[in-house]
Amino acid sequence: MKDRAAVARPPSGERIPRLEGLSVAMSEVRIAAEPRTEFGKGGARRTRRAGKVPAVLYGHGKPPRHIALPAHDLLHAFKTDAGTNVLLTLELADGTELALAKDVQRHPIRGSYEHIDLVLVSRGEKIVADIPVQVIGEAHPDTLIDQQVTTIAVKADATLLPGPIEVDVTGLEPGTSVLARQLALAEGSELDADPDLVVVQCLAKRTTAQMDADLGETPAEEAGAATPSA
pLDDT digit string (tens) for 136-190? Predict the structure, then answer.
């Protein structure tokens, strides 16, 4: 099982792994990291048995670093409202680094953390993140809400990623659409997607007669089927 959440690209166009998944207002957690010298499945199992989570730290043109993080500390770090999208201050032997989780692998049954990919970020660095979109409010009684987009790409400071973007559908009638350019973004954030992307579409609810027609029945046929023969 994977929780996908992580980093993207700066506005310069230089390619950096894209941030996906749950993104909320940033929490920051300090966590100790130690170098990992054993690799492969056997080494990863031994790391986990020692109460640590194997991880790889990369980005900013630096060579990948294989590290291990305390499982208990990591579990508490990811229990905040930010989920796995917590800004981690990694305490390494040669100093500290800021990082975000890019890819989190969890045990399918126990839910424990199996492996984590971490990407280096800097304060003030702009990245592109996929921010979740949440629909709120009650649409018109004749309206069926079709949410076509569950996340939207937003450019923001790596340490100040916005929380979920709310789309208020209160009173919207059939035939109405909400486009990406109509979303209310947090201060300091900007849209990094097609502005005409349809996020929410309001459809007309199907009537009982229409649903019966799809089933090949009419109200009169249903009534006849319900009447017992003499």
Answer: 999 889 889 999 998 899 998 888 888 789 999 999 989 999 999 999 998 889 9
Same domain, yes or no, for 63 and 131?
A: no
Please indicate, yes or no, whether residues 91 and 152 belong to a single structural domain of this protein. Answer: no
CA–CA separation, 137 and 94 (whole Å): 50
Q: Do residues 16 and 105 share a domain? A: yes
Q: Looking at residue 195, which CATH number applies to its domain?
A: 2.170.120.20
- pLDDT at residue 22 above 60? no
| Whole-angstrom distance, CA of residue 137 vs CA of residue 2 | 31
Please give the torsion angle defined by the CA atoms of residues 219, 224, 228 and 230, in that order, rounded to the nearest 10 degrees. 160
Identify whether the C-beta of residue 16 lies closer than 8 Å to the C-beta of residue 48.
no
